[in-house]
Design a protein that fits this description.
Structural class: mainly alpha
Largest sheet: none
Number of domains: 1
Strand content: under 5%
Helix content: over 70%
Radius of gyration: 18 Å
Shape: globular
Distance between the termini: 44 Å
Length: 237
């Protein structure tokens, strides 16, 4: 198995094809920013404080939230120090938490297809940022930290929109919502650990910089596919 992984990382074409295929499959997954029918039924039927259950649902959402993880993959792609990673992840998490909780409490709802299309665009934005496109095009580098925080706000609205659609019982809503957000952040940490390990392992082969541009092109392509998928759903529905 280890030898197979080494061959994948060493072969340029195989590596790029792998990421394009993976991102395509993840981008068109209808569960990319929602919950399963079973979880939806549980949320709608829940009443009273159910902290552990909502922590589990939040973590499950993030681990299967391929749009979130694709964006975060782009965010930490060129980060080598855990200190820097923690800063960017915190900015994203704070933004995500603010709009998730306030969006549900104040019932601020945005069309799910539109918000998910914007989330797909955030993946495209970060991939272009990693390729140095903005400095070449506009002559300056936009604040990566600000962009990470803003897109965190947008990602939170995406989930808040879904929860509002499920009409969660007001009994125990606030503690359950906080528990759900805690679960989201736990899932985010777990997902980032896996991503960081994979990237760190890749860097050991010495071809990381050589293939970095191609990897971000694949990431951008996946983002565009996700945008197209959501816009098609908006116009068809």
């Amino acid at each position: 198995m280890v030898d197979f992984i080494k061959q994948v990382f060493k072969r340029k074409n195989s590596f790029v094809f792998f990421w394009v295929l993976l991102l395509f499959l993840l981008a068109v997954d209808a569960l990319a920013h929602g919950v399963t029918d079973g979880d939806k039924g549980f949320i709608q039927a829940s009443s009273g404080r159910m902290l552990m259950a909502f922590i589990y649902l939040g973590a499950k959402h993030m681990i299967t939230g391929y749009d979130h993880l694709s964006f975060l993959f782009g965010v930490i792609f060129f980060l080598y120090r855990l200190k820097d990673i923690s800063i960017y992840v915190t900015l994203f998490a704070v933004g995500h938490s603010i709009t998730l909780i306030s969006g549900v409490l104040f019932e601020v709802s945005i069309n799910a297809y539109i918000i998910d299309a914007i989330i797909g665009f955030s993946i495209v934005y970060k991939a272009l940022d990693n390729m140095g496109a903005y400095e070449r095009w506009f002559g300056f580098q936009p604040s990566t930290k600000l962009a990470t925080h803003v897109f965190g706000l947008i990602h939170g609205f995406g989930l808040a929109t879904k929860i509002i659609e499920y009409q969660v019982s007001p009994d125990g809503l606030i503690p359950n919502l906080i528990a759900f957000n805690v679960g989201v952040e736990i899932g985010q940490i777990l997902g980032l650990i896996v991503i960081f390990i994979l990237i760190s392992y890749w860097r050991r082969f010495g071809n990381f910089i050589q293939h970095a541009y191609r990897a971000n092109v694949a990431l951008m392509a996946g983002g565009f596919v996700f945008v197209g998928y959501q816009l098609a759903g908006y116009f068809i529905s």
